[in-house]
Give the backbone structure.
Amino acid sequence: MADLLLLTLGLAAFAAVAASASAQTQFEVNPSQSTVHFGLADTLHACGGVFQISSANFSFDRKTSKMSGEIIVEAASGNSGTAARDRKMKKEELKVKK
């Protein structure tokens, strides 16, 4: 089983799952049509990349306007476009097991 990186993020696009009669609305993200993009910068350079989503869901309370949820990302799917950086990121930072 692939290692998973759990991220809690706000998401702009999602599909409604629950009925609109409830004050609490549930949303589920389609993993095959969604990715998490990341960007890192320091003084000398910047890099970015993408992770594939395993699953994601949110709930929105219309009474309080509060949103909560989670996005589960496949840590092994991290891709910055540079193979050496990706190997180091997965081995040393994300601790992805082969």
Summary: The chain is about 10% helix and 45% strand. Helices lie at 83-93. Confidence is low (pLDDT under 50) at residues 1-20.
